[in-house]
Structure formats: structure tokens, C-alpha cells
Amino acid sequence: MICRSRAGRRAGAVVLVLAAAGCTEHNAMGTIEYTTPAKRVVKIQSPSDEDCHQMPGGAHQVTNYTVSDIRLYANDDCVLTKAGDDQSGRTGGESFYLGTQMSVEFTPGQTPWRSYSVVGGGG
């Protein structure tokens, strides 16, 4: 009976750990870091994967230290390029796909990135 009791406690602990892990699936675990045109460094810790996130002042350089890929946009609304529609049918603005643990810098003549969304997020 002692073995069953320990096994039951272990099973309960595993369920509890899995349930807690399920709660964290709504965040891109890690940090997104960007530099504004004014050279200010901004760090965002574990952003929600269900929202469009604005980058006030824009970003000339972005590093994705999260476990999720992100998409950068040249507008405040997280919409795709002028040639494409997003899931809600909106159009306009440039976009750039930035993989996990990757970095991208501003190209002269480019519009600063103004928002981002987590790839696979609900927003």
C-alpha cells in the first residue's frame, strides 16, 4: 500500500506540474529587446502570445531572446504587407519574420518597426 500511495502522490504531482505548465502557454517565454531610433534600449519580458504589441518610438534593432518566433510590423496594428491580408482581412504595412534567438537591424531607408506579434498567437 505504501507503493500505491507514493505512486498516487507522484501522479498527482505530475498532473499539477502539467496544469501549471499549461497556464504559461499564453506567453512567449524569454525577452524581446529592441533599440529605438533615439538609441534607448527597451526589454519586454515574456510577452503575451495573443496580442499585437506596440513599440512606442519604433525600433531600429530587435533581438528575440524568447522561445517563440515573432513577426515585426512597420505599423501600430500588426498587419501584413500591402500585398497580403491577415486573418481578419486587414492590409497595409511591411512585416518581417524574426526567429527565436535571432536579431535584425534597421536598413537605411526602411520604416522603423512599430509593433510585433508572437507567431502562432491568437491575436
Short description:
With 123 residues, this protein is an alpha+beta fold. The protein has one helix and eight strands; from the N terminus they run αββββββββ.
Describe this structure in words.
There is one protein chain. With 123 residues, the chain is of the alpha+beta class. It has one helix at residues 2-23; strands spanning 31-35, 41-45, 52-59, 61-64, 70-73, 95-98, 102-105, 113-118. It is globular, with a radius of gyration of 19 Å. Helices cover 18% and strands 33% of the residues. The protein has a four-stranded antiparallel beta sheet with strand order 2-1-4-7, with no helix packed on it. The N and C termini lie far apart (50 Å). The model is unreliable at 13-24 (pLDDT under 50).
Kindly name the structural category: alpha+beta
How much beta, percentage-wise? 25-35%
Number of strands: 8
Mean pLDDT: 78
Q: How are helices and strands ordered from N to C?
A: HEEEEEEEE
- The coarse silhouette is globular
End-to-end Cα distance: 50 Å
Radius of gyration: 19 Å
Q: Strand order, main sheet: write it out.
A: 2-1-4-7
Number of helices: 1
Largest sheet: 4 strands, antiparallel
Unreliable runs: 13-24
Helical content class: 10-25%
